[in-house]
Specification:
Layout lengths: L9 E3 L3 E4 L6 H9 L16 H17 L4 E6 L4 E9 L4 E8 L8 H16 L3 E7 L3 H9 L3 E11 L8 E10 L4
Parallel strand pairs: 5-6
Antiparallel strand pairs: 1-2, 2-3, 3-4, 4-5, 6-8, 7-8
Helix pairs in contact: 1-2
């Protein structure tokens, strides 16, 4: 990882704590958002039907943290209530994507914006050249969050990504948003 700094395992914002997930988070992640069909609708991962699926994701998270300078985070309120997830998916030593997911009772409260802004700060501190995010063209709230956080819409990637919880059976169009950093 020449040139990249390791991300902190714990990030605090005004209202939130983003922390590296643990295997013992599986039951709570499953119950709060990973098993909710409405929450997972515009996610690129299939709805979790059992806590074992969530446990497999958390094992994958550990492997990402071992391989790269950062990986997935769980998002909690300051009181410890788990409300969602976010993080980084690295493709190269200078490029990663970010994303987020929140339990329904956390929607519309600005937590996504606060979380994405935190991801941007960490990306810049780590020394990334490019941070990007993809969202389904019909997912207007996600586009709004990314634009509020200073991401630029680069365009539409046609029939690019499958959304298994939409049930249409094929790849869908996505907006590609990015932020670039001069420090690289």
């Amino acid at each position: 990882m020449t040139g990249l700094k390791t991300a902190p395992a714990r990030i605090e914002t005004d209202r939130l704590v983003l922390r590296r997930p643990r295997l013992d988070d599986a039951a709570e992640v499953f119950a709060r958002y990973a098993s909710d069909p409405e929450v997972s609708r515009y996610m690129a991962w299939p709805l979790h039907r059992t806590p074992d699926t969530t446990r497999l994701f958390l094992e994958f998270s550990e492997s990402e943290w071992a391989k790269w300078p950062a990986g997935p985070y769980v998002v909690e309120l300051r009181d410890g209530t788990l409300i969602g997830g976010a993080g980084f998916a690295f493709e190269t030593r200078y490029r990663a994507s970010t994303g987020y997911v929140f339990a329904r009772d956390a929607w519309g409260k600005g937590y996504a914006t606060e979380t994405v802004n935190a991801m941007v700060k960490v990306a810049e501190t780590m020394g990334l050249a490019r941070l990007y995010a993809l969202c389904h063209v019909d997912h207007k709230p996600s586009s709004h969050v990314l634009e509020k956080c200073g991401f630029e819409r680069e365009g539409i990637l046609r029939r690019y990504l499958e959304f298994p919880n939409l049930g249409d059976g094929g790849p869908a169009d996505v907006h590609c948003y990015s932020k670039t950093f001069a420090a690289f």
